[in-house]
């Protein structure tokens, strides 16, 4: 396969697309650079003890940061200087991060989860950065939340970096989903998975079944459907759950399957599940939809939900189209 970088691919295949602008290319370039820096630090995670950086203060006299804080800092530092954003939102920041006055501004709005699955870091399990990009609404200054919040269907691009056995970038600008693998010897993400399509019916279900007692009866029926043999496959789906959304999603995207994080009706902390609409569910649903799959809250397409707040949570059922449709069908029957 010829070695095509992300930016070459964007420019080669999307000439007529409004996304092939210099500003969008700059945004993507900065994001990629931030992800390479995060990837380098994630790869060193296991060496922290070996190198003696275990205390609060490292040998340079600097405060040792948790990797998720570090990833957040790198992303904000790079992206606020990119000159193409009007604001940033991160899973780690309660409020919008506005672009400081000394830096030029643009009309893109970037939302990210800097290090999804970070509770797995110490066990050397895959983690990732999820991103979502919008344009500021027409006529808006782009510095007020109410101006920025939009439905997932308005995203101009979304995707993720997966820090796994190799580091990958998977993204869409609404013209298919493409995957690139970081070649550390040249320091570039090279096209490895062009035009990803997910199977219409999957063979994997991914859910934290320990919450069984917290679920309502229709949710249990859904999980029984996937683990039983009276389903579309005529045999149980394989159960796989890493506990890193981005890694569970990526595996299911390639192999076919469904990831479920339902509402926990008896857990007062999670009446809408755990995952966030804007920095997790919406970007991954955009990728899923572009790969021929779907994302739903059990009733509606995730991409159709009008956000009300920055850190809004949403039940999430995402992956192969027929499997997501089955979830909606079982909930609909129960209503
Ligand atoms: P986080 O954003 O606090 O890291 O939580 C999100 C993570 C997802 O990556 C993962 O799918 C989920 O939490 C796992 O939650 P649970 O331990 O409840 O199964
Ligand atoms: Mg997360």
Automatic annotation (TrEMBL):
Protein residues bound to Mg(2+) 1: 91, 113, 115
The keyword Hydrolase appears for this protein: yes
One annotated Gene Ontology cellular component of this protein: cytosol
Domain Fructose-1-6-bisphosphatase class I N-terminal: 5-194
Record: residues binding substrate: 116-119, 208, 241, 274
Needed co-factor(s): Mg(2+)
Subcellular location: Cytoplasm
Cofactor note: Binds 2 magnesium ions per subunit.
EC number, as in UniProt: 3.1.3.11
Keyword Metal-binding listed: yes
Enzyme class: hydrolase
Residues in Fructose-1-6-bisphosphatase class 1 C-terminal domain copies: 199-331
Main location: cytoplasm
Alphabetical keyword list: Carbohydrate metabolism, Cytoplasm, Hydrolase, Magnesium, Metal-binding
GO molecular function ontology, one term from the record: magnesium ion binding
Catalytic reaction(s) noted: beta-D-fructose 1,6-bisphosphate + H2O = beta-D-fructose 6-phosphate + phosphate
GO biological process terms held by the UniProt record: fructose 1,6-bisphosphate metabolic process; fructose 6-phosphate metabolic process; fructose metabolic process; gluconeogenesis; sucrose biosynthetic process
Pathway: Carbohydrate biosynthesis
Binding site for Mg(2+) 2: 113, 116, 280
Recorded family membership: Belongs to the FBPase class 1 family.
Subunit structure: Homotetramer.
Protein name: Fructose-1,6-bisphosphatase class 1
Naturally occurring in which organism (per UniProt): Solidesulfovibrio carbinoliphilus subsp. oakridgensis
């Amino acid at each position: 396969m010829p070695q095509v970088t992300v930016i070459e691919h964007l420019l080669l295949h999307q000439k007529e697309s409004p996304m092939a602008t210099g500003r969008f290319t700059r945004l993507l370039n900065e994001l990629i650079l931030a992800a390479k820096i995060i990837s380098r630090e994630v790869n060193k995670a296991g060496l922290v003890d070996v190198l003696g950086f275990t205390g609060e203060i490292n040998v340079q006299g600097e405060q040792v940061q948790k990797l998720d804080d570090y990833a957040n800092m790198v992303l904000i530092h790079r992206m606020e200087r990119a000159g193409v954003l009007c604001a940033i939102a991160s899973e780690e920041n309660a409020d919008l991060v506005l672009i400081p006055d000394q830096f030029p501004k643009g009309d893109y709005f970037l939302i990210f989860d800097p290090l999804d699955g970070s509770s797995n870091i110490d066990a050397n399990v895959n983690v990732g950065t999820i991103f979502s990009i919008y344009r500021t609404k027409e006529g808006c200054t782009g510095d007020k939340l109410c101006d920025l919040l939009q439905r997932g269907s308005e995203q101009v691009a979304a995707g993720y970096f997966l820090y796994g056995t190799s580091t990958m970038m998977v993204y869409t600008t609404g013209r298919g989903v493409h995957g690139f693998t970081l070649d550390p010897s040249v320091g570039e993400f090279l096209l490895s998975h062009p035009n990803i399509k997910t199977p219409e019916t999957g063979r994997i279900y991914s859910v934290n079944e320990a919450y069984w007692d917290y679920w309502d009866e229709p949710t249990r029926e859904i999980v029984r459907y996937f683990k039983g043999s009276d389903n579309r496959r005529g045999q149980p789906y394989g159960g796989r759950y890493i506990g890193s959304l981005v890694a569970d999603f990526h595996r299911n995207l390639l192999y076919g399957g469904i990831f479920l994080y339902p509402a926990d009706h008896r857990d007062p902390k999670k009446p809408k599940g755990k995952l966030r609409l804007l920095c997790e569910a919406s970007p991954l649903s955009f990728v899923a939809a572009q790969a021929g799959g779907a994302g739903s809250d059990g009733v509606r397409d995730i991409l159709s939900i009008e956000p009300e707040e920055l850190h809004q949570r949403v039940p999430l059922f995402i992956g192969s189209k027929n499997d997501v449709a089955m979830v909606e069908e079982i909930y609909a029957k129960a209503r």
